[in-house]
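Sample pair:
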Amino acid sequence: MTPRIVLAAIGMVAATLLVTSTGVEAQTPTATPTPTASPSATPAIIGTARISGTITSGTLGMAVPEGLTVQLIVLDGSALGAPIAAPVSGGTYAVEVPLAAGRVFIPRLVSEGVEYLGDPVTFAESAPLPRMATRDFRVYGVTREAPDLAIASSTMTVIGIDRERGQLGLLREDLVANPGDRVFIGDAQGVTLRLPAPTGTIEATGDNVDGKFALERGVVTTTVPIRPGKLTSIVTRYVVGYDTQADQYALRVTSPVPAEAVLVRVPTGFVGALKPQAGARRGTNVPAPTQGAPTGRPATDAQVLQVVESEGTVKPGGGIVVELIGLSKAVIQRNPLTERTGALAAAAIAIAIVGGATAVRWRWSRRPA
């Protein structure tokens, strides 16, 4: 299996998370391509509703920019409908929208080149008239002057292993805090964060769609905007090589800025043993969610994550090292990213890392307004 194939498989896991996880944070900025309608049968219209909201500025001394428009992305099942525009006037917007069974509206706003998504809106057919929903936005100014960024947590997870080629697939999530009141859009080169890659990295990329990623001289750079007000989740993935004769690999996770916690998580059965180095300790194992796994299938080792964590806060340039020993251990022979049942297990593993309240932003749930 080539590194590119492994990365594509890891990307499939991340895509599964983005579509199937539940809950999306209100006023959470993210990025999606400008939506265009997809051809499909037009659903029956069952009525109308009103969606409105207020736009406020979170940057001291900055007024809400003129000429903004809230765009309502329309989803009918998996089909993308024609977006509905709602111009902002006087810091507010309002629009009447046609309803269809199961239809979802996702409010989207772009201000100074930064994209924001509001909580998805659905209306139950039994909802009393008039049907109304409110989705407010808080927007920020932008800056190229780097604020004092910090990382709430950096979590590196082993989610794939190719024993024949001596390669590991890794998924990393950094939750980055911006203490300022402007969105950091990068330095003169547009780079917002530089992540040292693990030893032996063959290929690396990122999952955020609102920024670019590049691997150069052992460092992954990204242009993902770092926003104030909420943690920004930055997800990167790697293919690393290890010495099959030595049958072990030293996994190093390095933080470019101060970090409150650095963690490594490895599915039970992927390795024979974990050996934390100085500054790290064993943590409590985490049971990976089994949602999406075939009904009636017994639990496997791949559904439990062994945890190693930093003993305290980590300084810039610091981190933890974990020795993965016994990579040839014949507990899980198949690559969990390429087979159907394995891919489901890998998705469940990744949910434990990227899922939760601070997960990647493109998530929505069908809950009535």
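The CA atoms of residues 298 and 327 lie 24 Å apart.
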